[in-house]
């Protein structure tokens, strides 16, 4: 990735983001979520084409601060902009039922969209989904196939 030029990128870059420009920051390593939220809010004031990335990274701050409703709002906004990692994040939320009702079918569709847009981590999400015995589409072979795509 390119070198992060913004504090939002330095504090909140996401490993699963194919458009990331910073060194990934593990969720557990976000020590000051309010600094991340502030940095990304400031970046959004002048972001132009980077709005999707800054919204997603700010959402990570909100999640870390326990503000799930605000996080989902930002993730949805970035997804509506066509930002692949936000679509992946929304798929993950739908799969896990984090701050939204669980919806495996929506998760599958969103994982597929984000994968097609270059978010390789979506293949891992699809692998987990197809390996879940509670999913109507449970299919260990599809799970294995998607895991191979992730590992490529």
Q: What is the CA-based Rg, rounded?
A: 15 Å
Structural class: mainly alpha
Indicate the overall shape: globular
The end-to-end span amounts to: 18 Å
- State which percent range the strand residues make up: under 5%
Residue runs with pLDDT of under 50 for 5 or more positions: none
Element string (H = helix, E = strand): HHHHHHHH
Major pleated sheet: none
Number of continuous helical runs: 8
Describe the structure concisely for a colleague.
The mean pLDDT is 94. Helix 3 packs antiparallel against helix 4. This protein has 152 residues and is mostly helical.
Would you write up a description of this structure?
61% of the residues lie in helices and 0% in strands. The protein is built from eight helices and no strands. The chain has 152 residues and is mainly alpha-helical. The model has no long low-confidence stretch (mean pLDDT 94).
What attributes characterize this protein structure?
mainly alpha; 152 residues; globular
List the helices and strands and how they pair.
Blueprint: H1 7-12, H2 33-44, H3 51-64, H4 68-80, H5 84-96, H6 104-116, H7 121-130, H8 140-151
